[in-house]
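Bench notes, afternoon.
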Amino acid sequence: MFPISIASHGLPNSPLLPLLIKLQVRFNSNSKSRWLDRQWSDPYTREAKINNFRSRAAFKLTEIDDKFHIFNKSKIQRVLDLGFAPGAWSQVARERTSKESMILGVDILPCDPPHGVSAIQANILSKKTQMLIRLYFTRHFKLNRIDKLHKNHGYLYEMWEEELLHSKDTETYKEIFSSISPNSSSEDEYKKMEKFPIDLIISDMYAPWPQSLIHNTNKFTNDAYYRMANTSGLTVRDHQHSIDLCDAALVTALDLLRPKGSFVCKLFTGVEDKLFEKRVKMVFKKTIRFKPKSSRNESKEVYIIGMDKKEDIDKVEVFTT
């Protein structure tokens, strides 16, 4: 049985309306009950609470790091966490990198980042989002010195109002958020930034998130309710959305990840997962398919890990071969 959207039926005066309401309430109640039972019986969920992790997903990343050593406390790393809400992966990244390392979380939904982590609420499919990510890692300025979400605009505007106002980066930042024309100074400034400023990209996009928070999205997000693509229970639909978001993460890696850098991406398996894995192999010298023990047996998720990014990659070839 699938959840019924009463509004979509357009039957406000129909005699079927009471029945539809009862079916929807019953479905939601049973679904919630099953979810709660699974949560209470899950050892990783309990362990996450004990360790103050924001979700059990933290253990998936720790398993990946224990096996493949993507983090390094002995050097400064610049880490981009895509789909970071609710922040468990950023917590692990903060714990397993040096104090000087920079960690930036990006999510289309609002989320207060963990201590020591910066964040922006933005759409990774937007060119301006990539420009902001490049600016953040290139300029090495700090975000969220006071962990306080701006009520309308997200973290970068909080920083803009309180810190960038007297910063040398003010004009660059301002130009990025202005309309960009082919001859604008923002494009010239963008070209001067470091070409590949990131050492590691981790992507857990597709993590479930309460849909009631969607009204808090800002003007830099595009159709967030549609694009957030939470799991629906429909295997084909979930897989297709997953491929879309994995491709977006891979494009980000092509554009921003340094040569020899690493990449971790969650994928929901299906008919196109081998094609995505093939694309990753064209970008990285070593590609691994991995399912952590902390991932539920019934889950279709796997993690594609790319290590040692190649140089001089043809992006068009990656997505057309």
